[in-house]
Design brief:
Helix 2 packs across helix 3, helix 2 runs parallel beside helix 4 and helix 3 packs across helix 4. Helix content is about 15%, strand content about 40%. It is elongated and about 100 Å long. The strands form 8 sheets. The protein has a 6-stranded mixed sheet, sandwiched between helices. A 5-stranded antiparallel sheet has the order 15-14-13-16-22. The protein is built from 8 helices and 35 strands. By secondary structure, the protein is an alpha+beta fold. The chain has 4 domains: about 140 residues, Rossmann fold; about 90 residues, P-loop containing nucleotide triphosphate hydrolases (Rossmann fold), CATH 3.40.50; about 100 residues, Nucleic acid-binding proteins (OB fold (Dihydrolipoamide Acetyltransferase, E2P), Beta Barrel); about 140 residues, OB fold (Dihydrolipoamide Acetyltransferase, E2P), CATH 2.40.50. The termini are far apart. The structure holds adenosine-5'-triphosphate and magnesium ion. Adenosine-5'-triphosphate binds next to helix 1.
């Protein structure tokens, strides 16, 4: 059964639709085991806080149910749940010292105590905790967060990290079964974060309770959790151990989000063989011949060697020393391959690269839109996909901006006159299948491609065409195209969604 006896919290088909109709969490299904350290990981706005708030009881799901120890708590008010939350913006009482901040909730608390009334009948009375009990609990909470020495200090005299510990002590002093932590370390600097990550892990072990942790920082998730839940747009993409998620991402989104990776469009070219970067690579996964797939290679799995000894050849175009090894970018044809290597190599050096078959992760491609990750903007302000330049609208990169009248690769912010020169800027581009159309008139402008597959999907064809440089375009049309037919591709410029690899500020023109 879904909520077996080792599950402490289960979410079944939980959906949260806000009043304005926005769906922040959709059909969310998750079983959290007792004592686990679970992390909800995903970019800003993907619904992490909303999920946590529903578990805490601050928000009620629009659909679905939440179980605690197998009992439905979907509509139980927060104070009746054995759950406490540490928020991103924790509000400590500035006028109370450390001890009183932690003791505050306990002094308010009433607990049921069994006793006898004057007639000798059994009754349950609500009583305050005794001072000794409060003392004992506060002392234990402060010990767990390693603040017992500082119990008399004013809040204002504490560092950010120490204040964070008080916030955690205040939550665990209630002895919850589940502790919810919403980006609790985001206010700390990098070094302190790393320290606190280790300490939180230790606290988790000492307390033995369930932690549900929220972050958008993948390193944090990898280093602390037993289980990671990767989220996107209110839905779960993958649930697994850190190793599992890192080594076997289920799709390109998860691979891209978790750590550094090389992600390529590939095609299955044989039995346990995929083709990308202009070469054939042996892998361990068996996919149908000619299927379009994504492949992921982690930089640390690339083996660099002298030219001629690998699968592909390339030139080192960037090199960063990382203390233990070097981080290289090798240009292979028009693509880039990121690698980690212990040997010092000069810029411009020619190298070969290979990997062992088991380090190539092959994943089904979700064919939902045209998606180009490593493309750039030309000096004419067009989108360069391989050799082909597509008209696009650069002003989508900055709301309210317009193009410079003399240079179509420059956008201008009318509010402050700032100018951004995007010629050569690395970007990614996405557009719907509907944005693409094909023509058999080969005298037209635009990429020339050959129809590779044509699939009838209910009421239209989904047609994939590939250019000579192996860039793929997918269109939906009511017309049938024969496989192997040459077509001209055109893309509606207004429908191209651009995203710069670096921030827009990097491209600001300064005189
Ligand atoms: N009360 C609300 N009404 C309408 N929309 C909301 C409400 N609360 C949150 N949202 C929207 O729901 C989406 C998910 O929000 P949520 O706070 O859960 O994201 P998050 O993953 O925690 O992001 P972050 O990392 O930025 O904290 C966002 O698009 C947000 O704007
Ligand atoms: Mg949040």
């Amino acid at each position: 059964m879904a909520n077996g006896s080792d599950s402490i919290i289960s979410l079944h088909h939980v959906t949260k639709r806000f009043k304005d109709g926005f769906v922040a969490v959709e059909d969310f299904n998750l079983d959290i085991k007792r004592g686990e350290f679970v992390t909800l990981l995903g970019p800003s706005g993907c619904g992490k806080t909303t999920t946590l708030r529903m578990i805490a009881g601050f928000d009620i799901p629009s659909e679905g149910e939440i179980l605690l120890n197998g009992k439905d708590i979907t509509k139980l008010p927060p104070y009746k749940r054995p759950v406490n939350t540490v928020f991103q913006h924790y509000a400590l009482f500035p006028n109370l010292d450390v001890y009183d901040n932690v003791a505050f909730g306990l002094r308010m608390k009433r607990v049921p105590v069994k006793g006898k009334d004057i007639f000798g009948r059994e009754v349950t009375k609500m009583k305050r905790l005794s001072n000794e009990e409060i003392d004992r609990r506060v002392a234990r909470a402060l010990e767990i967060v390693d603040m017992e020495e500082l119990e008399d200090r004013d809040i204002a005299s504490l560092s950010g990290g120490q204040q964070q510990r008080v916030a955690i002590a205040r939550a665990i002093v209630n002895e919850p079964e589940v502790l919810l932590l919403d980006e609790p370390l985001s206010a700390l600097d990098h070094k302190k974060r790393l320290d606190m990550q280790l300490e939180l892990k230790e606290m988790h072990e000492k307390l033995g309770i369930t932690f549900i942790y929220v972050t958008h920082d993948q390193e944090e998730a990898l280093s602390m959790s037993n289980t990671i839940v990767v989220m996107k747009d209110g839905a779960i993409m993958q649930v697994g151990t850190p190793e599992n998620i890192y080594n076997e991402p289920v799709n390109a989104y998860v691979a891209d989000f978790i750590g550094e990776s090389n992600i390529y469009n590939a095609i299955v070219s044989g039995k346990k063989e995929v083709r990308f970067l202009g070469a054939k690579w042996e892998c361990v996964d068996d996919f149908p011949l000619n299927e379009k797939v994504d492949v992921v290679i982690r930089p640390e799995d690339v083996i660099l060697d002298e030219p001629g000894k690998g699968t592909v050849e390339g030139k080192i175009v960037s090199s960063v020393f990382k203390g233990e090894d070097y981080c290289y970018v090798v240009k292979v044809g028009k693509s880039e391959l990121e690698c980690r290597d212990h040997t010092a190599r000069p810029l411009g050096a020619l190298v070969s690269a290979r990997v062992t078959p088991e380090t190539i992760q092959v994943m089904h491609k979700e064919l939902t839109e045209n998606d180009y990750r490593d493309v750039e903007i030309s000096k004419e302000g067009k989108l360069l996909i391989g050799e082909d330049a597509l008209a696009c609208d650069l002003t989508v990169l900055l709301k309210g901006s317009h193009l410079d009248e003399n240079d179509p690769s420059i956008i201008v912010d009318p509010k402050n006159g700032k100018r951004y020169s995007l010629s050569g800027a690395a970007c990614s581009a996405r557009f719907d299948f509907e944005a693409v159309s094909y023509s058999d008139d080969l005298s037209l402008e635009g990429p020339e491609a050959r129809v590779l597959t044509s699939v009838w999907v209910g009421d239209h064809y989904q047609i994939l065409a590939r250019t000579e440089e192996e860039d793929d375009y997918i269109a939906v049309t009511p017309y049938q195209y024969a496989e192997g037919e040459l077509v001209k591709v055109s893309v509606d410029p207004k429908k191209i969604k651009l995203r710069l690899r670096k921030g827009l500020d990097e491209y600001e023109l300064r005189d």
